Amino acid sequence: MLKEFKEFAMKGNLVDIAVGFVMGAAFKEVVTSFTGGIVSPLIGLIFDADFKNMKYVIKEGIANAEGVVEGDISILWGAFLTNVIDFIIVAFVMFLVVKAVNNMKKKEEPAPEAPAGPTQEELLADIRDLLKK
User: Fold this and answer.
1) 41 located within any domain
2) What torsion, rounded to 10 degrees, do the Cα atoms 64, 66, 68, 74 define?
3) Does position 47 have pLDDT exceeding 70, yes or no?
4) Residue 61: which residues within 8 A CB-CB, separation 6 or more?
5) I need a surface site. Which of 18, 48, 100, 102 has the fewest CB within 10 A?
6) Residue 45 is assigned to a structural domain of this protein
């Protein structure tokens, strides 16, 4: 069983997937940093606030059984929109990478067409002529 697992784990496709996964995770961190450090502040200029912390407060703090006020009930639309922007950037870059890899692969040349042989009528005519002799 260990030998089978080793063969499975060392297959080229699995190793490629693992490398792609690690690179994707690292790239996600770069994109998150880009979005949080550059894109969000620029969009935040429009709203005159920190974009990632934008939220719609549904209900202010709630008092629990002991009378202690707990956090607001809010829709965190700024964080959600930031994550959507992250996803779009990552998806677009992955699209470009896959497209580039596909273009770099050698395009398979179509198999040469079989030489055009005689048609069925020509073969029948040849047989007829041979039978006449």
Assistant:
1) yes
2) -10
3) yes
4) 69, 70, 71, 72
5) 48
6) yes
